[in-house]
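seq as requested:
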Amino acid sequence: MAKTVEDFNKRRLRSSNITVVVSIALVLFLLGLMGLILINAQKYSDYIKEQLVVNAYFDENFDVKDSAKTVKREQETFKKIQALGPVKRATYITREMAAQEAKKSMGIESSALFEENIFPSSVEVALKPEYVDPAKIDEAIKQIKATPGIVDVKNNSTLMVEVYNNLNNILKWILGFSILFLILAVVLINNSIRLKIFSKRFIIKTMQLVGAKRRFILKPFILEAVILGVIGAVLGLVVLFGAWYYFITQIGTPFAQDNNQLVILVAGIFLLGVLITVLSTIFATWRFLRSNVDDLYYS
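struct tokens:
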């Protein structure tokens, strides 16, 4: 009979541990998924912002005899623009390139009907994502316009501001959902741990009544919490990256190439899983350590 009871308790303990591990893994999987979405949303937000370009134009009036000197001056100006702080990427567009582009856009193929020197050379500038901010874009344009050799700077500031605001709103919503998932993670893991500790409340109180110190009682529970937290975190991360790998292979698009961000995400999820599990265990165990024997029947 004693053996049957002991086997029953072992099965119940094993079932309780499995439930806690699965709960931790599931919650951390969802939290990690939101983290990956947030990382990639930020990455593609920056990519889209970099596609919004500013065009800096050189003087269209020049003497053909001095064309070599003019090109040299323009290349020097181009290098100065490349060195500016707000500039992410710059492309030098010669008069010939501008003419060819104009031909394509107008559908003109014959050179006899088209004068190539009517378009000025220019520099196409892609700003760093942070300078697409409406509060900073004017500063960036002023720096470009102040570069010697540049006579005019044109950009669709209305489009830039609209794209910037829309992307920021999307990122705010994703960040809000990530915070919500974090709160849910804390609540769900905490509830799973509390149920596990609740089933051992009589053991905790018995140990205390026979003279065991609180630290002595807490130690095995904390050790077990660390192990469960590690197993749950590892399981959640394996499922997360397995599902993510399957997703990107089906889509055919590489996501989240920044290894530093991935390492931070993995470390954050791992530590979060262990930390929440340990803290929940401490609080739940401490509650029964402070309670009276009679309270154990009504907790």
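The mean pLDDT is 77.
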